[in-house]
From TrEMBL:
CDD domains: KAS_I_II. One of its GO terms (cellular component) is cytosol. Its main location: cytoplasm. It comes from Arenibacter echinorum. SUPFAM superfamilies: Thiolase-like. This is 3-oxoacyl-[acyl-carrier-protein] synthase 1. The keyword Transcription regulation does not apply. Keywords: Acyltransferase, Cytoplasm, Transferase. Its EC number is 2.3.1.41. GO terms for molecular function: 3-oxoacyl-[acyl-carrier-protein] synthase activity.
């Protein structure tokens, strides 16, 4: 069995837009969600800027019951539930009846670190001999699968409900995992996505590694500079993205709108061998992942016309472009259009792949390619391989056909998914 898989719903909770309409407007107009955070300055961070979705308390009440909100102290769960629920509604799907799960629908919703503020709160209570004051929801908010568990209960999904975690490759990996489950006939619909907590306890380790830009605290919107010669590190971010994947048969039967088709994908690891390490990708594995994704999708190298890259605004950006160029055997003006979402939202860590997949898929709906931010001074090593016209600075009219989206994470792990403009056969 090899069912066709399509995307029928999208949801987003990003630093520059909560909800599809706000996010699309920000992406269209180059509006950044990166701002200065006084809390980081007070804590002595070198990098005092970040991307963080702004969620008013009144909005949370639309997604959570009063009981669920009591003691809720996990930003990742808030972001994930909002994005996941919105994607479900966008697909025109209803929540399951109270007495019967939806056996055909499942969830794969990933995360990196979840509930770290709740965990800190719990540690202080335990250290003060107040363990009994932890409350009944401390476990649900700090277990890795808390996000999929919350969504599973809200939506009533009765198929596989689980959480994946592969650092920055988490979101893209989840799309492939969901696709494979539907393709094999084990589910009709899978809600896939990923989320990440926000705040100093998430971002502090990266600041200590000195891989964040500390020279843009007074000018945060210019700090995230993918593919730029003056890039000085990634800006930390947070949020969630979500997609409803569905068998084509189910989508057509429901009369659902279709954003795009998921043709195939692949994930692998460089094994931290060769030039690969805990923090650096093995180029051989990256190229192999791209080629395996194309093979799984049945797509030729020449057919890829748009790439949404991982592109973190670090020294690895030029190497990523070289990997794409060598894998696809394409250079100069023959290179696909390429863009980097992180210029406007920062690096949302485990949420990055899903946030960026939503951005990539919105391009199909609107018939355009979002522009790149803060890279007017393109890195010279990139310009040796790619003509500047293939890296649009502003949103450009172009109907995507084959879009390749890749994510690479700590631990030398890689994921690449291939989308296609949906066509009936």
């Amino acid at each position: 069995m090899n069912k066709r898989v399509v995307v029928t719903g999208l949801g987003i909770c990003a630093p520059n837009g909560v909800g599809l309409a706000d996010f699309y407007d920000s992406m269209l107009n180059g509006k950044s969600g990166i701002i200065f955070h006084q809390e980081l300055a007070d804590l002595g961070f070198g990098c005092q800027i970040a991307g963080k979705p702004e969620i008013p308390e009144s909005l949370k009440e639309s997604y959570f019951t009063a009981l669920q909100l009591r003691g809720l102290n996990s930003s990742g769960i808030v972001y994930g539930v909002m994005a996941g629920t919105d994607a479900w509604m966008d697909a025109g799907l209803a929540k399951a009846d109270k007495d019967q799960p939806d056996w055909d629908s499942g969830i794969i919703f990933g995360t990196g670190i979840l509930g770290i503020d709740k965990l800190r709160e719990s540690i202080y209570l335990i250290d003060d001999n107040n363990a009994r004051r932890l409350g009944s929801n401390s476990v649900m908010q700090t277990m890795a699968s808390g996000i999929s568990a919350y969504l599973g209960g809200i939506l009533g999904c009765g198929n596989q409900v689980t959480t994946n975690s592969s650092a920055c490759a988490t979101g893209t990996e989840g799309v492939i995992m969901g696709m494979e489950r539907i393709r094999s006939g084990k589910a009709e619909r899978m809600l896939v996505g990923s989320c990440n907590d926000s705040g100093p306890y998430i971002w502090g380790g990266f600041d200590a590694m000195r891989i964040l830009p500390s020279n843009y605290n007074d000018n945060p919107q210019e700090a995230s500079r993918p593919m730029s010669a003056s890039a000085s590190g990634f800006v930390p971010g947070s949020g969630a993205g979500a997609m409803v994947l569905e068998s084509l048969d189910s989508a057509l039967k429901r009369g659902s709108k279709i954003y795009a088709e998921v043709l195939g994908g692949a994930f692998n690891s460089g094994g931290q061998r060769g030039v690969g390490s805990m923090t650096a990708p093995n180029s051989q594995a990256v190229q192999r992942c791209i080629l395996e994704a194309l093979k799984d999708a049945g797509v030729e190298k020449s057919e890829v016309d748009v790439i949404n890259g991982h592109l973190t605004a670090t020294s690895k950006d030029a190497e990523e472009i070289r990997n794409w160029s060598e894998a696809l055997e394409r250079t100069a003006k023959d290179f696909p259009f390429i863009n980097a979402t992180k210029g406007l939202v920062g690096h949302c860590l485990a949420a990055s792949g899903s946030v960026e997949c939503v951005a990539a898929l919105l391009q199909y709906r609107e018939g355009l390619i979002f522009g790149n931010q803060n890279c007017q001074d393109l890195h010279p090593e990139i310009l040796e391989l790619v003509d500047a016209s293939r890296i649009p600075m502003k949103t450009t009219s172009h109907k995507p056909k084959i879009v390749a989206k890749a994510s690479f994470g700590f631990g030398d792990v890689n994921a690449c998914v291939i989308f296609n403009d949906y066509k009936e056969m």
